[in-house]
Write a structure and sequence with these properties.
seven-stranded antiparallel beta sheet, binds flavin-adenine dinucleotide, Pnp Oxidase, Chain A, alpha+beta, globular
């Protein structure tokens, strides 16, 4: 797979094209920094954009959900989807509303769904999604029963095309506005892990596992 994603009419960033990124590693690094995506698809002329979890494995996005879900049925039937992931890095507080912005890293992926039906492959895909959300958790918990696996649809969406768009840095104000007296700059924002809240029904002797301690250390605010 080439390291540069081919730029076509479908994935070419038009507005502020200098922010467009097609380097596969950078695109995948953004995908690997989140577990929340939005799946966009059209059914009978009606667009739907549905938030859901995902994981990336090689050149595929993996999604799972109830076998009754509209989105999962759509993907399982091999239909087209557009999947987006957005990481917000900060508020860009410019001297005018026009130049006020957001620092972000976002990705748009295009592909068609393929249902994973083989139970072992399904289990592997669920593991990949779980690892993307909370590394180490899957090995700690009870695995899916045959009945649970049956009621869960798992799909892979090979990444046919993709783009990233990245904004970094301070506001870009009009030259004459730099003399204005208000504060300007960036308010960095990030998602941080808080304090663990024990399940009231958790036996007191059960310790906090290492992988959660590591997660908290990595994502401390
Ligand atoms: C947090 C955040 C806030 C934003 N706020 C605004 C806003 O308020 N107003 C506004 O107009 N735009 C905003 N944008 C930018 C917006 O996502 C589009 O980039 C913008 O509408 C311009 O699209 P376009 O017309 O150039 O491309 P389009 O013709 O819409 O898209 C062409 C192709 O470019 C690629 N592309 C476009 N945008 C992105 C993206 N963000 N990430 C990855 N690939 C992309 C896709 O492959 C797409 O198919 C925001 C983006 C983010 C992440």
């Amino acid at each position: 797979m080439a390291n540069q994603i081919e730029i076509t009419d479908r994935n070419r960033v038009r507005r502020l094209p200098e922010r467009g990124v097609y380097d596969r590693e950078q695109v995948y690094a953004i995908l690997d920094s989140s577990f929340l995506c939005h799946v966009g698809f059209i059914q009978d002329g009606q667009p739907f954009v549905i938030p859901t979890n995902y994981g990336r494995r090689n050149d595929e996005v993996l999604c799972h959900g109830s076998a009754a879900s509209r989105m999962m049925k759509h993907l399982a039937q091999g239909n087209a989807a557009c999947i987006t992931v957005t990481l917000v890095d900060g508020l860009v507080l410019a001297r005018s509303g026009f130049h006020s912005s957001i620092n972000y890293r976002s990705v748009v992926v295009f592909g068609h769904g393929h249902e994973i039906t083989d139970p072992a492959e399904k289990n592997d895909a669920l593991y990949a999604i779980s690892e993307n959300i909370c590394p180490g958790r899957w090995r700690d918990i009870r695995g899916p029963s045959p009945q649970e696996l049956k009621g869960t649809t798992v799909v892979r969406v090979p990444i046919e095309s993709a783009s990233a768009k990245i904004r970094t840095g301070p506001p870009k104000d009009d030259e004459e506005d730099y003399a204005l007296p208000m504060w300007a700059g960036v308010l960095p924002l990030h998602t941080a892990a808080g304090e663990l809240v024990r399940d009231p029904r958790l036996a007191p002797a059960v310790p906090v596992p290492d992988y959660l301690q590591q997660y908290i250390s990595k994502h401390r605010g």
